[in-house]
Design a protein that fits this description.
mainly alpha
């Protein structure tokens, strides 16, 4: 492993993802796992359901 790669890995360990980035990753994970099992699942469907769940969670507060 080169020194440059080691530096990049150490820098990546200190990065704190934003809430928006975590949400994007969560949706990507959900899409990847569901579309793998059902090719009729679209990213739009995942986004719509995630938005719906977020709205319901806000309403419960």
């Amino acid at each position: 492993m080169t020194n440059e790669l080691k530096k990049l890995i150490e820098a990546a360990k200190r990065v704190e993802p934003t809430a928006e980035h975590r949400e994007q990753q969560r949706r990507s994970f959900a899409y990847g796992n569901t579309a793998f099992e059902n090719d009729r699942i679209t990213r739009k469907m995942v986004d719509e359901q995630a938005d719906k769940l977020a709205s319901q969670a806000r309403d419960k507060r």
